[in-house]
Amino acid sequence: MKIERRIIMKENRITKILGIKYPIIQGPMAWLTDAKLVAAVSNAGGLGILGPSAGQTTMTPSPQETMERMREEIRKTRELTDKPFGVVIIVDVDMKFTNPLLDMIIEEKVPVALVNGVAGMDFESTFKRLKNAGIKIVFRGEPTVENARTIEKLGADVFVATGFDEGGMLPGGQIGTFSIVPLIVDSVKNIPVMAAGGISDIRGVRAAFALGAEGVFLGTRFLATEEARTAQNVKELMLKTNAEDLHIFRTLPHFYRSIPTKLSAELVEMDKNGATREELFLKQGGGKNMKLGMLDGDENGYISVGLGVSFIKEIKSVKEVVNELMADFID
């Protein structure tokens, strides 16, 4: 059935705040972003975001080296686009990695910071430093009414309401995207809300806007693009996968899901047999095994995707994807 295109609006609070053409953000998938992908998204009219280990092939335990590697990727991104882009800031317990990264993105005058973290972290000091530097703050954390109201009071510019449909580390609340979005929209007064989780075609975009979101935040859809670093065999596997195929298992802090691999099958079996979250977390192997599965294309790792993988049928350019998703904003 053909869906008629209609123009919703030319701009909204998201586009004005972030200085972008279309209200769409590319999520900062660990290992899977780099200057090429991020610049492509920004050049297409959205906001690209450099995620953890952006552009890298090896891990480092050094906060200083982590920061300098990100600085290099920021400068590469600037060579490819003159449009706004962002960097993820993961607020950790002792700020060991957070503070050096904050120092650097302020020095580099990065336009937008995507702040991630769990409740109880020191968001107040992080927000204060970013706001004093004139950096816009998009917050994406546990999507609860209490959290949204707290983050609004602390001065975030945009709140991302993430549903259980997402890829990566899943929320603890287990509330679907199209239930959590209107709940969060109704709970804040002065900041716009973006929808995340399971959105990968224009039907999802339109549904998100109908529920009060003013933008969409996508990870999985951008993994299956020509510019993405994702292993080619993983991209092709995504085209053959739907939500019914995915493995889901407990871990820390909550849940993860994966396209079936040797490792994910073992994790599902451990979960069924009563393994603790701690045991599952150790077996999962964190970022190391995400890199193995998604960047290297090795089935001994895991392949984290959201439920929107069901609707990805073709590997396209970033520009084609953005144009399709934002068709209602294009004359």
TrEMBL record:
Keyword Oxidoreductase (UniProt):
yes
Enzyme nomenclature, EC number: 1.13.12.-
Q: Which domain of life is it from?
A: Bacteria
What keywords are annotated for this sequence in UniProt?
Answer: Flavoprotein, FMN, Oxidoreductase
Which Pfam families does this UniProt record tie to the protein? NMO
One GO MF annotation is: nitronate monooxygenase activity
Tell me which InterPro entries the record gives: Aldolase_TIM (IPR013785), NMO (IPR004136)
| Cross-referenced PANTHER family | 2-NITROPROPANE DIOXYGENASE (PTHR32332), 2-NITROPROPANE DIOXYGENASE-LIKE PROTEIN (PTHR32332:SF20)
UniProt-recorded name of the protein: NAD(P)H-dependent flavin oxidoreductase
- What does the organism's lineage look like at the top? Bacteria, Fusobacteriati, Fusobacteriota, Fusobacteriia, Fusobacteriales
